[in-house]
Design brief:
By secondary structure, the chain is an alpha/beta fold. The chain has two domains: 93 residues, 2-Layer Sandwich (60s Ribosomal Protein L30, Chain: A); 141 residues, Alpha/beta knot (3-Layer(aba) Sandwich). The protein contains nine helices and twelve strands. It has a seven-stranded parallel β-sheet. Helix 5 links the parallel strand 6 and strand 7. The longest helix is centred in the middle third of the chain and has 13 residues. The protein is elongated and about 65 Å long. Belongs to the class IV-like SAM-binding methyltransferase superfamily. RNA methyltransferase TrmH family.
Length: 252
């Protein structure tokens, strides 16, 4: 294991840029994970691990040969970690193949429409993984899938549940023949407890704007989550969790 003590070391600069710049992440095809949990998940699910950085006190799992191992003092870790309270371990992973599948063979998918909060996007990916969704599509300016806040919120689902950032038209073409249900109010809105989820895609929009008109127009039907009359809506991640639970309820 090598040791780095300078905050200006090229590796430290690289890590800070991975944490702060989406364009840099895409250019390098790498992303940053900032906890021991994420390192363990990356190792367990075969991510292409590039570098592990830790403080001297951190306990590391077995790391395969060929992965760069670096020890840093606490002040350097604070300077490179995107977390306010660093957990003593960072790792760099290669992004997986980002090309869309030629066709969809799974049972259920999620389409996120303009969900801009990284925590919500990450939580939805984690929930989709928990309830057996076959993939998540991010359209219309969603938060960066590889933002450290998004990655942290996935709690490792980033390594297990396929996800793609893409254009709406591409998604709609892929979804041809698959019922698309949107979380929104329309004349044909149906109670979420009465829908056939045997094969479908579930669309969730941002809290502020909801689903875009283009995506809403493509929906087979819209779904209503019953709630108290004085409540107008749910957090996007909570709404997605309700839909995904309903969709998986009979198969889990």
């Amino acid at each position: 294991m090598e040791t780095i003590t300078s905050r200006t070391n090229p590796l430290c600069t690289h890590l800070r840029k991975l944490a702060s710049s989406g364009s840099y992440r895409r250019e390098r095809r790498e992303f940053l994970c900032d906890s021991p949990k994420l390192l363990e998940e990356a190792l367990a699910y075969g991510s292409r691990l590039q570098t592990v950085v830790c403080t001297e006190q951190a306990a590391l799992p077995f790391v395969p040969a060929g992965v760069r191992l670096v020890a840093v003092p606490g002040d350097v870790m604070k300077s490179i970690s995107p977390a306010q309270t660093p957990q003593g371990v960072l790792c760099v992973c290669k992004m997986p193949e980002s090309a869309l599948p030629e066709r969809l063979t799974g049972r259920r998918y999620v389409v996120l429409d303009g969900v801009q909060d990284p925590g919500n996007v990450g939580t939805i990916l984690r929930t989709a993984d928990a309830f057996g969704a076959d993939g998540v599509f991010l359209v219309n300016g969603c938060a960066d899938l590889y933002n450290p806040k998004t990655v942290r919120a996935t709690m490792g689902a980033i390594f297990r549940c396929p996800a793609w950032s893409c254009g709406l038209e591409e998604v709609l073409e892929l979804l041809a023949g698959i019922p698309l249900y949107g979380a929104a109010l329309r004349s044909d809105t149906t109670d979420v407890r009465t829908v056939d989820y045997s094969r479908c895609a579930l669309a969730v929009g941002s809290e502020g704007r909801g689903l875009s008109q283009a995506l809403l127009a493509a929906c087979t039907k819209t779904l209503l989550i019953p709630m108290q009359p004085h409540c107008e809506s749910l957090n996007a991640a909570v709404a997605a969790a309700v839909l995904l639970w309903e969709a998986a309820r009979e198969t889990i």
